[in-house]
């Protein structure tokens, strides 16, 4: 047997060992995973020391993960696997709002606000009025859609990254009769993904940065439609071209308008400069 034949025999034997898997999809996944993992090891001619370093790295990723921090998802994010999966499962309908990564900072049970309410609740930053509509891809307005939003404050931290259990910079509301929505929050800021663990070490070792461009997260649900998980990004942000998790899509980059202190269109009077943005959301009907 040649060296190549010996190596391929190992792969064939492992693939064959999964042949009896009853669940067809599971069989497809584990056999394909085996082929690709083995091809990777052959491709880089993986040494024993490198195999050990890889196991050590994944062990640290596991030890860093708990119910507050998901280092495996972060690893998937910086490897682009999260965005590749989003892309593979993208809506088929042209015109639907594009998705992006979910990220680790969504929290169940955020407070509900009425249309026009303020989700900042003490999050630091320049006030920002967000308006838009929720529609189906056929153009019909979606009343009563549930819109969840969350974001980092001007120092680049989510509420859950501070001590205590204060909820700030997050909330949810329902769209009105014409699909319209509006809320106040703060202008989002760029921030680093958590980089004090093994994923941060990987970024440092490979000369990559941890920064994400300023963004506001949305999760939108309406009956009969696919759930949308996305962000809006601020046009002009210096990190749009270098998002640590590859989440930027051109259609999600919007202009934030700047306004001097004074009255906003909804009657709120601000004693500081403020910003606004419009983001119209289009959901894909479920087949
Ligand atoms: C976020 O945008 O919240 C996020 C996404 C991926 C990794 C870390 C943070
Ligand atoms: Fe985020």
Automatic annotation (TrEMBL):
Any coiled-coil regions, as ranges: none
Domain Intradiol ring-cleavage dioxygenases: 130-158
Protein keywords: Dioxygenase, Iron, Metal-binding, Oxidoreductase
GO molecular function: dioxygenase activity
CDD domains found in the cross-reference section: 1_2-HQD (cd03461)
Family to which the UniProt record says this protein belongs: Belongs to the intradiol ring-cleavage dioxygenase family.
Protein name (Swiss-Prot/TrEMBL): Intradiol ring-cleavage dioxygenase
Protein source organism: Pseudonocardia alaniniphila
